[in-house]
Specification:
The structure holds 2 protein chains of 2 kinds. By secondary structure, chain A is mainly alpha-helical. Chain A is 72% helix and 4% strand. Chain A contains 12 helices and 3 strands. Chain A has a 3-stranded antiparallel beta sheet. Chain A starts with 5 loop residues before the first helix and ends with a helix. Chain B is α+β, with helices and mostly antiparallel strands. In chain B, 34% of the residues lie in helices and 23% in strands. Chain B contains 19 helices and 23 strands. The radius of gyration of chain B is 33 Å and the shape is elongated. Classes of the chains: A mainly alpha, B alpha+beta.
């Protein structure tokens, strides 16, 4: 605990606690329907949380320089896993998407790990040769090539949410590392046709965008999920129905325990709860920025900024999906949504931030 | 790392957080009411649950109809894998054919009734079979413990509690009570999350009838036996208290008035006493005689010549009953021996409008106003539509159709000294409160006319009259027979083979306590009212008088029946 950024530590602890509590309330109905055991998702999440806490403890012990040397091996390992998953018979298919690797009882999503791996990799390569960044061909293109390859692999798993997150995090890190705005603008423009293509090849993504624009046109079919989410949040009012007392999670709101858990919080805890949650993420972001600013080396600065961006960006995007501010992409809410890989990765990011904060204090 | 760029990103982040916060305030505060209303609409519904229906009781509190919890069994065919085996195992429990259950189980959809209104004990039997997809639900059931005896009077309640026929319809407002109102909250799977009472149910009130279970049973048994003995299609019988119009018994049996076509097999839960109209024949003669007496056109000793048994009016030749070739008869003898020709000739001078208006005033061609649904007015054409033979026909009870209740009500007035009471099944205050109010009693005959006519009609049941078989030992009975040819709609003439055989009478003749009418449709052979209906009347009258404790001899003595002191039950009245 010594030298850690305590406010950040307690913020993460609070998010983990509220996340587990919300998950318990939000997942009961689905747990009973799927397994007959109302604690099913909660226990799984609890086990993953313990693993995640172990990861945090481990990361905090490691020297930041150690991370710098591990960045490339970790990235290569993730690359191998991402490729392996596409080999028929290796990946596990759930709901039409092949995103998981199964080892014994543990089911793991390499795309989640890839997010941290990319942040580590970019922090290392961008901090090593900051001057090269001014050149498009020598500086940006190799980075973009690596990241682009990963994004294509993830899109091949039909995982648009993580592809978007990785792209955005990459742009943010390039921006922070000093890439020319001219280049970044060019990349952004270059991404547009790719995004258009990604949307065009999957018809359901077109529907999602149309639904986002007019959710109340078809509230019983395509607009069901988003309108149920808005109704859940809106009906919560100021104080909510009370934790556990929500009805929307009972077969009205699909994915209540994963991507739309924020709507359950909105219904049960009201504006008080949603603003508290929003405040915790904002506070986490502020602490992250503070650590990044004070970090002694460029690598540590970029690492802290990247990890902060990763968590904050996912939280913002998820809450914006639930409140119908952006189209649905299928993103979990960090620390809240059911899903072991995501929770461990979220905690790993927090662990990296804390590790940097420790070094800041030294 | 550029500090400036980091600051720029921090500002972007704060703006985004602010945007989400503003959106949340909009959704959860400004738009809260609309969204909460939408949630309410999809989660909440109001459901009504019927109140326990009131009981129908006879005049001494014996239960005629009551509600008790029953069980409905339904299936979700999608959950039933082994349909054949399930049907075979259910069949004996539900007491339904295997094939019918199998047919239900093969339907599409997720809900199908297999059986309804079974005794509550069936539920445990069904549940002990542990059949997937087969479910029980509690529902209200209606039971009629006295069965056939009161079937057509009580009527019927449908499977979902809606009234269908009979008194159940007439007094539905009273019996139904007020349903309970509940708020049901459901989840997305339509499972109840919460059920809250909004308004408690008000149980239905009990309905006390004037009918007497014992008299009803006596009449029902006698009528059913008489119909069987005479091979009749059906018939009706009524016992009423002439002092107030209360019906003590109102029974029907078989299908009187049916033509044998399937379409008019009748409605088994609607009383033919109320709905069946028929040509009354000679039981109508005392009404005409009363008109003659009231108009001063005849006295008991007025003489009339019988024309030897046949008499022409306009284009029709009227006859007296086969074997009757009367010479001179007194007015009294015309009634006692039921001479058609005597009646026609006595009425010949009475203006048609006078006759018509008298009879109308006495309830012919009008509803009696009984508190039972579906009462017809009968048929009674006004004089301007009469032909040359119509007055003659009406004087002997033809060219018009009546209900047994119309005739019984008139004889009731005759019996009580001239006041016409509407026949009714319940006490007046109940009727007035829930159904239409009963017509007020009104005087229609002078006491002198009544006395005179009743004395004449006492002669009908003597050996010299047409109905010695209606005589009740120890009592004097005043009454009248009727053997009415029925109009043959196929051949457009009066049938020579189909008759309505009736007897209507009052006893004890001095101060009548009961008026009873018995009418049978389509009795075999020589279906004279005196042969067919009179014995049924005697059976009913004898047993009812004994049950009511009315002593023969020195006039009637009222048996006082306290509320707690029930009269003897049927079983105690050994024959």
């Amino acid at each position: 605990m010594q030298n850690l950024d305590r406010p950040l530590f307690f913020t993460v602890a609070a998010l983990l606690f509220f996340g587990l509590a919300s998950l318990y309330s939000a997942s009961v109905t689905t747990a009973i329907r799927l397994t007959g055991n109302l604690n099913y998702f909660f226990f799984h999440q609890l086990i993953w949380a313990l693993i995640g806490i172990g990861v945090v403890a481990l990361f905090v012990q490691l020297n930041v320089h150690g991370w710098e040397s591990l960045a490339i091996p970790i990235f290569l390992l993730c690359l191998v896993l991402l490729v392996a998953i596409l080999i028929p018979g290796v990946g596990v298919e759930v709901k039409g998407a092949t995103r998981w690797l199964q080892v014994g009882p543990i089911r793991f999503q390499p795309a989640e790990a890839a997010k941290v791996a990319i942040v580590l990799l970019l922090a290392r390569t961008l901090s090593r040769h900051p001057d090269r960044l001014h050149s498009f061909r020598d500086g940006l293109l190799p980075q973009l090539g690596l990241v682009g390859f990963v994004v294509v692999l993830i899109l091949a798993e039909r995982d648009l949410g993580n592809a978007v997150v990785i792209t955005l995090v990459t742009l943010v890190m390039l921006f922070l590392a000093g890439a020319r705005l001219r280049h970044l603008g060019g990349i952004a423009l270059g991404c547009l046709p790719l995004v258009a293509l990604a949307i065009a090849v999957e018809p359901y993504r077109v529907r999602r965008i149309l639904t986002f624009l007019h959710p109340w046109d078809d509230p019983t079919d395509t607009g069901w999920q988003i309108t149920q989410s808005l109704m859940a949040i809106g009906s919560g009012g100021l104080f909510g129905t009370g934790v556990g007392a929500g009805i929307q999670k009972r077969y009205f709101l699909p994915e209540a325990h994963t991507d739309f858990i924020f709507a359950v919080v909105g219904e049960e805890a009201g504006l008080i709860g949603t603003l508290l949650l929003l405040g915790l993420f904002l506070f986490l972001a502020w602490r992250g920025v503070r650590i990044a600013r004070r970090a002694p080396t460029p690598f540590a600065q970029l690492l802290a900024a990247g990890a902060t961006t990763l968590i904050t960006l996912q939280a913002l995007l998820n809450m914006m999906v639930c409140t119908s501010m952006v189209p649905n992409k299928g993103l979990p809410l960090p620390f809240f949504s059911a899903g072991g890989s995501a929770l461990v990765v979220d905690l790993a990011c927090a662990g990296l931030l804390l590790a940097v904060s420790r070094w800041v204090a030294e | 790392m550029s500090r400036l760029r980091l600051l720029f990103l921090a500002v972007v982040g704060v703006v985004l957080f602010g945007g989400v916060a503003a959106r949340l305030v909009y959704l959860q505060v400004i738009d809260h009411d609309r969204l909460a209303a939408r949630v309410k609409r999809q989660q909440e519904e109001q459901i009504t649950i019927d109140a326990p229906r009131g009981r129908i009781l006879d005049r001494h509190g014996v239960v005629i109809a009551e509600s008790a919890e029953a069980v409905g069994v339904y299936a979700n065919p999608r959950e039933v894998a082994a349909k054949g085996a399930t049907a075979r195992r259910l069949a004996p429990v539900l007491n339904r054919p295997v094939r019918r259950i199998a047919r239900c189980l093969n339907r599409r959809g997720s809900f199908v009734w297999l059986a309804r209104r079974l005794p509550a004990t069936v539920q445990t039997a069904v549940e002990s079979l542990h059949l997937p997809g087969i479910h029980c639900i509690r529902e209200p059931g209606r039971y009629y413990p006295l069965g056939e005896t009161f079937r057509s009077v009580a009527g019927l309640v449908g499977v979902d509690g809606q009234e269908l026929e009979g008194l159940e319809v007439a007094y539905d407002d009273l019996l139904r009570g007020e349903p309970g109102l509940y708020l049901r909250r459901r989840d997305g799977n339509n499972q109840a999350v919460e059920i809250r009472l909004l308004r408690a149910a008000r149980p239905g009130a009990n309905l006390h009838l004037t009918l007497d279970e014992v008299v009803q049973h006596i009449a029902h048994t006698a009528l059913a036996d008489g119909i069987e003995a005479n091979g009749a299609r059906g018939g009706v019988a009524v016992v009423l208290d002439p002092r107030n119009g209360e019906l003590l018994a109102m029974v029907d049996s078989g299908a009187p008035g049916s033509t044998g076509r399937r379409a008019d097999a009748g409605r088994p839960y609607r009383s033919n006493v109320v709905t069946w109209t028929y040509e009354p024949g000679s039981i109508f003669k005392p009404l005409v005689a009363a008109a003659l007496l009231e108009e001063g056109r005849a006295v008991p000793d007025t003489l009339v010549y019988g024309e030897g048994g046949s008499y022409r009016v306009a284009d029709r030749i009227f006859h007296d009953a086969a074997g009757d070739h009367f010479g001179w008869l007194s007015f009294a003898q015309v009634l006692q021996r039921s001479s058609n020709i005597g009646m026609i000739k006595l009425t010949a001078d009475l203006p048609s409008t006078t006759l018509y208006e008298r009879l109308r005033a006495w309830g012919i061609g009008k509803r009696t106003g009984i508190d039972y649904p579906g009462e017809p007015i009968g048929t009674f054409r006004p004089p301007k539509r009469w032909s040359g033979v119509s007055r003659a026909s009406v004087s002997i009870g033809q060219e018009l159709r009546v209900t047994a209740l119309q005739i019984a009500a008139f004889y009731g007035a005759l019996a009580n000294g001239g006041t016409l009471y509407p026949p009714h099944l319940t006490h007046d205050d109940v009727a007035a409160r829930t159904v239409r109010p009963l017509p007020s009693p009104r005087r229609i005959l002078s006491e002198k006319t009544c006395r005179t006519l009743v004395r004449i009609l006492e002669g009908v049941t003597t050996p010299k009259g047409t109905a010695p078989k209606a005589a009740v030992e120890g009592f004097s009975v005043a009454g009248k027979t009727g053997t009415a040819q029925q109009w043959d709609t196929r051949h457009h003439c009066y049938s020579r083979t189909r008759f309505v055989s009736s007897f209507v009478g009052m006893v004890p003749a001095k101060r009548p306590r009961i008026v009873c009418i018995v009418s049978l449709d389509g009795a075999r052979g020589r279906a004279y009212g005196g042969q067919v209906a009179a014995p049924i009347f005697r059976e009913i009258a004898t047993r009812t008088l004994r049950y009511l404790g009315i002593q023969p001899g020195d006039g009637p003595r009222l048996l006082q029946v306290a509320a707690a002191d029930r009269p003897p039950r049927l079983a105690e009245l050994s024959q």
